[in-house]
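Table 4 source record.
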Amino acid sequence: MREINFSENWNNKLNCTAFTTIRKAREKYYQLNHSYQINLNRKRIGKARLIKIRIITLHTVNEYVSRLDTGLSTDEFRKLMIELYPDTDWDNQLLYLLLFVNESKPNQTELWHESQLNITESATISRRSIRQLQPN
């Protein structure tokens, strides 16, 4: 079974009955009505079926899509994509806005645990950043 990997449960979308993800276009990998193993931080959390594919570009992502998919503003989303894929020609790169329906109930305990790890890591980074900004 093909896999969709997430490093973060953006906007807690993996907890939902249906969710979107925006990925670089890979015509042969993403196929309508195929099921995919869903992984969060390399841990299997469920299975979902791809029901819609919309072809977009980074420049056409609007506030609705960026907020629902990641919880980020359009500008924040675009900056994130550029950071994740720095060698990409964003004037020509096609993206897929993929719509999935969960076929199995996601492991809520696992999702909660992973989100707590991300919160803890973010808080640690923030505390470190604050200390670096403080005068000696």
